[in-house]
Amino acid sequence: MPVVHIATVVPISQTVGANRIVPAVAIPHPLGNPKMDKEEEKLMRRQMVEKALNTLTTEISEQTVF
What does the alpha-carbon distance between residue 45 and residue 65 come to, in Å, rounded to a whole number? Predict the structure, then answer.
């Protein structure tokens, strides 16, 4: 089953063997940024989730950071 790891620390994801890795924003706010206004943050979150969903359909043969 394909999975995507949205990771705040990509090297850790690579070490544990995650195959599809999408870098996150920051450790305390992986899918957000409290410095953005509400609408900008919502758009950024949506784009990150869409990116993660798109990686599920991407054929890979080795560990990949998107």
Answer: 18
Instruction: Please calculate the CA angle 37-40-45 and round it to the nearest 5 degrees.
Output: 120
Residue 41 tokens read as 């943050």
How many domains is the chain partitioned into structurally? Answer: 1
Which two three-digit tokens encode residue 42? 């919502």
Estimate to the nearest angstrom the gap between the alpha carbon of 39 and the chain centroid. Answer: 20
Q: What is the pLDDT along the chain (66 residues), one digit of tens a residue?
A: 889 999 999 999 999 999 999 999 999 999 999 899 999 999 999 999 999 999 999 999 999 999
- Amino acid identity at 6: I
Residue 42 DSSP code: H
Tokens standing for 9? 């620390």
pTM of the full structure: 0.85
The domain in which residue 18 lies consists of 5-65
